[in-house]
Amino acid sequence: MSDPLQIIDVEGNLAGTAPELDNSTLIQMYTAIVRTRAFDSRCMNLQRTGKIGFSVPNRGVEATSVGAAAAMDASKDWFAPHYRDFGMLFYNDVPAEAMFDNMFGNSDDTAVGRQMPVHFSFTEPLKWLSISSPLGTQIPQAVGVSLAARKRGEDAIALTTFGDGSTSTLGFHSGMNFAGVMKAPTVFLCQNNQWAISCPSSSQTASESYAIKGEAYGVPSCIVDGNDVLAVYVAMKEAVDRARAGDGPTLIEAITFRLGGHSTSDDPTKYVPAEELEKAESEEPLKRFRAYLINEGVLTDESADKIREEADAEMLTGARAAEAKARPVLGTIFTDVWQEQPAHLKQQMEYCIKHYSERDEAVDENGEFPL
Amino acid sequence: MSELTMVQAVNDGLRTIMTEDESVLVLGEDVGPKGGVFLATENLTAEFGEERCFDTPLSEDGIIGVGIGLAMNGMKPVCEIQFQDFIFPAFDQIVSEAAKMRYRSGGQYTVPMTIRTPYGGGIRGGLYHSQSGEAYFAHTAGLKVVIPSTPYDAKGLLIASIQDPDPVLFMEPKALYRAFREEVPEGMYTVDLSTVREVTQGGDCVVFCYGAMVPVCTEAAKRVKESRNKDVRVIDLRTLMPLDEESILQAVKDCGRAVVVHEAPRFCGYGAEISAMIAENVIEYVEAPVKRVAGFDTPFPNTLENYYMPDARRVLDAIEEVLDF
Asked: I need a labelling partner for A116 at 20 to 30 A (CA). Which of A98, A181, A368, B249 fits?
């Protein structure tokens, strides 16, 4: 495989041919990275202070998420994501509060407080399939979603994202294989952030890269600098165009680095060598994109700082609003199992609400909790 | 009306709903031009084209994963798993994904998918072409589990399963695929997904069963009538999830004695649930211990399969035991 595609080098200088993007799109991309980082940092604070149970650090991988999102048409395309892609949601202007609703698992959470934090599900403003904890399961699902669109004669495509570890799963193999055989309009984006919890690439594969696995499936593939938002955008745009034109799937490996832990329950200092982390910090995506945009006259120091301040304020406000909301009512344990609630779940729901109401833990027949 | 075998009724059910609803797709291994290893999908590709009925790579995980994606985006996929024994690579997609999608997305994403799979013994299939895995799936919230025992029910329950807004595991007793024929109406009809079928009438003992055990239990009931002049009510459960709890408990109240029969292993089998349900709800009506007749708690053997699976004689013994208690 060739060297990773790079357009902006680590200093923020142009190292390739920049895509034709208007200033407002570039600012939208930059803002999404900044908002992702602000959200990430707010979630870390909330977890450390015991207000939420869990989060998944996105620091370092934001350019991969945002560059990819910018190449999609969210009005019709589908996202079948993994859990470390917050930047795609911010690029598409999902309100921070809606994301915090999930982090708190409150009554406005689209997952109705049923999932751990960071397992987002949205139908608006983008079709973002509900995130799963078991890894790689979304990959063949993305293929199915894209085939359904094609069967109806639509030109919508599906993007599925996953980490380096997930290339070892059954889902990666079956998804890539089906997509190759069926020429599915699916884009496979591997966020190679170097670590599957504590396991480095050497414990996932003996291949020279993750991208090269595409060859075995007859799926074109490429490697990009995942810390370079424009390089990711360019590779993704080509893949999206190919899928939309009916020319089949693409596998993109975006090389980045997870600068935080796997999750808030993880201590990466135990296994990430300090010198590797230091080098990765020097190559992180935000600093170089900021330098690039300032060099190009798209942003100034002042306007860039303002974006940061607005993002911090948005996260504070969003988190406070979500924190203030009630938990889902008790009855929601028993709904959405099927479209129609069967008799045995109705019985169990009645028992549960009665049991806790009698102990003053739920206040009415709907199982509404006291605040 | 024509006389069809169960596998022909399945084929007719698929053809009927595919004609009715363009969003219904059939996918799986060898389901295309070959028509499936049991011919359940025979001629569907010729009739509806490769876009509607198509072969997939040999990957159960892929079949179900892709099926879930199709279902989430407006299609009604009918995925075939060639033998239920091969379903386990797809276990994650079925129990972690299809079963939980509606719940975990608050109803934003749903999976109206049917998984058809032949199950059970009686064809000398040995360890891996004979198993009955219904308990794994009935245990998982979010899945429906349906098992027909007649051609009429096979078609009606299959169409109801495909029209259902949630994922259904449709297990076909392959021992009955060509065991007998019966009148099956042409065109659309459905059989409700949560009602039992009373196969024989009687008030002395009730036998709960499903799938390939239904004719076995019916034969046992006949012999009890002959030998003791006792009337045994055989009830075909048909849908293991959701189940018709009210009818099950009423039958126990009426008969006072109950036997549960399945070919799956006894331990943590579906019969344990029925037995517990009886004990919890209608113990005061019960005049004898509930007896289970099941496959042994071993893997499924090949040469000696007829000694592994419950037969009419074993069911008869159990009925006599509860009658004599």
From this structure: A368
Inter-residue contact B281 to B249 (CB < 8 Å): yes
Local structure of residue A362 (DSSP, 8 states)? S
Integer-rounded Cα radius of gyration of chain B: 19
Buried b (16+ CB within 10 A) or exposed e, A32-54: bbbbbbbbbbbbbebbeeeebee
Burial A81-99 (b: 16+ CB within 10 A, else e): bbbbbbbbbbbbebebbbb
Q: Closest to A343 (Cβ–Cβ): which among B97, B107, B245?
A: B245
Distance from C-alpha of B266 to C-alpha of A55, rounded to nearest angstrom: 43
Q: Which of A42, A84, A258, A290 is catalytic?
A: A258
* Segments in chain B below pLDDT 70: none
* Token reading at B190: 């459905």
Cross-chain CB nearest to B166 (options A147, A178, A339): A339
Contact call for A336 and B102, based on CB within 8 A: yes
| Nearest one of B254, B284, B300, B319 to B123, comparing CA atoms | B300
Give per-residue pLDDT as tens, A297-326.
999 999 999 999 999 999 999 999 999 999
- Residue B184, classified by CB atoms within 10 Å of its CB into exposed (0-12), middle (13-18) or buried (19+), is buried
Q: Is B139 annotated in the active site?
A: no
Give the one of A137, A338, A342 whose C-beta lies nearest to B65's C-beta. A137
In the structure encoding, which two tokens stand for residue B159, read together? Answer: 């169409």
Residue B64 DSSP one-character state: H
Residue B172: in which H helix or E strand, if any? strand B168-173
Q: Are strands B232-236 and B197-198 parallel, antiparallel or unpaired?
A: antiparallel
B51 CB neighbours in chain A (<8 A) are: 151
Quote the minimal CA–CA distance from B42 to chain A in Å: 22
DSSP state of A331: G
Secondary structure percentages of chain A, helix, strand, coil, to 5: 45, 10, 45
Token readout for A208 is 């020279």
- Regions in chain A scoring below 70 on pLDDT: 360-371
Taking the CB of residue A17, how many other CB atoms lie within 10 A of it? 9
User: Using one digit for the tens of pLDDT, what is the confidence trace for A15-60?
Assistant: 999 999 999 999 999 999 999 999 999 999 999 999 999 999 999 9
- DSSP-based three-state secondary structure for B209: strand
Spatial distance between the Cα atoms of B46 and B48, rounded to a whole number of angstroms: 6
Q: Which of B76, B129, B144, B233 is catalytic?
A: B129
Q: How far apart are CA A126 and CA A74, in angstroms?
A: 5
Q: Please give the domain boundaries of chain A with CATH numbers for all domains.
A: 23-324 (3.40.50.970), 329-371 (no CATH)
Residues of chain A found within 8 Å of residue B75, distances taken between Cβ atoms: 148, 151
Domains within chain B, CATH numbers bracketed? 2-184 (3.40.50.970), 197-324 (3.40.50.920)
Answer for the pair B138, B84: CB distance below 8 angstroms, yes or no.
no
Number of Cβ atoms within 10 Å of the Cβ of B119:
26
Question: Least CA distance to B76: which residue of chain A?
Answer: A148
Is residue A258 annotated as part of the catalytic site, yes or no?
yes
The pair of three-digit structure tokens given for residue B167, joined into one six-digit string = 């994922």
Q: For testing the chain A interface, which of B29, B64, B104, B146 should be mutated: the one with the most A CBs within 10 Å?
A: B104
